[in-house]
Amino acid sequence: MDRKVFKQQFTLKHTPDWECPTCSKGTLKVIPKSFHHHEIKSSRFHDYEHWDPEYIEYVYSTLLECTNPACKETVASSGVGTVGQYYAYDEHGDPEVEYSDFFKPRCFEPPLKVLSSPQETPPSVVLLLEESFRLLFSSPSAALNQVRIATEQLLTELGVKRFDVRGKKRYALSLHARIALLPAKYAAFTDMIFAIKWLGNAGSHAPGENDEITMDDVLDAYEFLDHVLKELYLPKRIEALKKKAKAVNKKRGPVKIK
Known about the structure:
Distance between the termini: 31 Å
Largest sheet: 5 strands, antiparallel
Low-confidence stretches: none
Order of helices and strands: HEEEEEHHEEHHH
Structural class: alpha+beta
Shape: globular
Mean pLDDT: 89
């Protein structure tokens, strides 16, 4: 996972290498005629005595297209922008201050695929994780909470019970309690799943109860979950390939193994 790709601002001349969420081969580039940006009302005070271009704030919307000729997926994006300064050099090599518009995404639809889950990952977990990707740019705290929900679902897929029965009543188990119930064969994942749980808890807190959640916090949770999913499901793919290779060698030709 290249964190910088998701955290970078962009200009019309340069966009980060956002991977196409459909084919995962091409990158997304702005369709120039589709790009629209407007200055918001609160920044339109250019006659103010101490006004500076860096006070400008924009909202934008645009369409992006996948560079893979076989895909050409269209992705919608919207967000905010501002004006920033940078140094250019004149013909004599002397530095000059110049200004440019910089934009920061708040939404992609379909959402960018921040990480690719192993093919054997349960679809219910993948769907919840993709919903987190949709929230990443607009609300890191909501995205982080969604990773926690995806982790809850993973435990369900691993057979960890969700409820405890006391007398005639059924009580929902907390995520903490469910992690503690993981079978011994999954013990190696306990620390990372607990880390996701604590990050998810922070994402659920009301504003002011905790430090502000950042995109890096969500990306941490993605990396923890990505490791767990790969450790869980990639070995199954490897074992299936070994089994198929053995069958091909035995038959000395093609075989059909579901």
